[in-house]
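Entry for the shared binder. Reason: the reviewer on the internal report wants the predicted structure included alongside the sequence.
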Amino acid sequence: MGYDVDRFVGSINEGLLCCICRDVLEDPLQAPCEHAYCATCIHGWLVHEEICPEDRQPLTQDQLRPIFRYMRNDLNQLRLRCVNRDAGCEEQVSLENLSRHEAGCGYGKVHCPNAHCRVELERRGLESHLLVCEHRTRVCPLGCGLTVLNSEVDSHNCVAELRTELELLRSEMIGRSEDQKHEMKLRLDSQRTHMVHKISEMQQQMDELKRQVEHLQHDVRLLSALERKRGQDMERLELEKKELLEVLKALKEEHELAKANTCRITAL
């Protein structure tokens, strides 16, 4: 919805009126066909229709754009009366400054900021109300340091209130202590589970290393046995070599002797 036309001072250009609500544009958007609408109005329209409400041309949410700068400048320069005119405010401000004015207008309605106070009054009377509000709080004038309602100062009992405050603090500390214990227990359980898992992993790694060491020891023993056997075979082969050399030598001697005998026989 736009701004009520009756609030404005002077004439208003037709192009600055919403094509849907016919009030002055609020948060204006523009279609490709250059028709302008209040953001709330056109968004609500496009929920049910996908055409411009003015010339019936196709229109979607994605096609909406901010209005031209010159239209925005013209819109901002329009002057209108404060929304609190009926309450007595006679200010006339530009649309550009309207929000700032109304946020601080003395004739605007506000709620008392004190807790539990339901009074609604004009902003200009708030300061006076706060001085007498029965829900206004202040520091105890007797020196206990507690904050008390203005209406309860006379009946305020420092000792009883401090005792109550102490009990509340004790309950809060006990609650926090229990929460911390529970949190610590959860952390310890988590760490314990993690440590058990890590110990299990380390045990598996140690078992695997032990198996590898045993395999290596077995291989070393096999290699040692093979080395001893090779040494024994070498010794045996050396003995056989010596025996063969001796046999060969003996055969050569017998051959030489037989050859010599053959020569002597031939000579005879």
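Summary line for the report: The mean pLDDT is 89.
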